[in-house]
Design goal:
Blueprint: H1 2-12, H2 16-23, H3 27-55, H4 57-75, H5 81-109, H6 115-140, H7 146-153, H8 155-166, H9 169-176, H10 186-193, H11 196-225, H12 231-259, H13 262-281, H14 285-313, H15 319-344, H16 350-371, H17 387-390
Helix pairs in contact: 1-6, 1-8, 3-4, 3-5, 3-11, 3-15, 4-5, 4-7, 4-8, 5-15, 6-12, 6-14, 11-14, 11-15, 11-16, 12-14, 13-14, 13-16
Amino acid sequence: MSVAYFIGGQILTPILPLFFVEVGASKVELGIIMAIPSLVAIASRIPLSTLMDRFGKWVVVILSSVVSIVAIAAYAFTYQVLWLYVIGVFNALSWVLYQPASMSLALDLSPPNQRAESMGRYFMVIAATFLIGPLLASFLTLYLDFRSVFLLSVIPSIVGLLAVILLGRIRLIRTEGTVSRYHISLKDLRELFRIRQYWAVSVASATFWMATSVFGTLFSVYCEERLLLTASAISLLFAVRGLSNTLVRIPAGRISDRIGRRRPVLAAYVMGSVVFWGLSEFSTVPLLMLVMFAYGLSWGMKVVSETALLGDLVPSQRRGVAMAVWQTIDDIGFVAGSLAAGVSTLYMDAPSFFKIMSLVLILGICIVVFLVRETAKSDRDFRTTDDTSTGGLSQ
């Protein structure tokens, strides 16, 4: 199901900023439109995360898939900039519902002493869509316009949705949705924020996604306007990033389980900073491919090791809300990056702003170096005297 969900979105990733500009959005408007999904997510992610516990995670997964199909197809019929904002809201709602539900399911199914490797396998499957989606976009944009590509990109999600239903998942959904073991309270959230390492890792993560948001807003348009690359060639660059992102995830998970979470996370941030410096300096396709390959390595190492670290810090009973809070902080980074990218076009070119993002990632490096330490790798290390009152969270 996750493969089907993400393929559709990843087909859009390289070409969506180009489509926004084609519809008539200015560079500043482009930044605002790219920030809309994260703005909606900030306002709704934590409240909507309670749906997982009230109705069941699989209900949330299916609902979000339906919303995604409708939103992506709507782009094909959009000719005014105003509607790009509206569709962005629905895309955000889909993502807000789907991501914590699917990741929480994956964490629940992974054994504590192999959590990083298990999450590496899960995220490798997701990362494969980062390769498949842009490759499909590269091929489709050779023969079709953007609107036709949007319509075709919903097919994987439709197939995945039908597959879940036909395989009998609905029976599990009904069973899962009848039980609510707990409710999320303000006390739960206060206890969560008392875990200092959780907060430090979340802030560091926001710096990475801020840089990634800047990349997503500016890179495709920069390649088309300054480097004169076609949409197909741009999509191919994204596919190179997806390839390394896919290949690194299982090895990164195994390494993280063996040597700890901190060093792989630190390596990911260091590599990310180097990547953005390279984006600011290189303009030929071969060198950009090399930089994009390194970008994928950085991304894959970060996601696997940090998610495993989250699993170590937070017990399974509260991973759903913990994931939602963490991703909300990431969304703040996304919003800051998108808005800053749009405004930056008034004062500087894209390569100059990529250099600034390289420096921002150094902040993430400092947080990991000075505030993050190794943690226990088992739920046994979380001791609570009253799990129902504290939400299972321990400092």
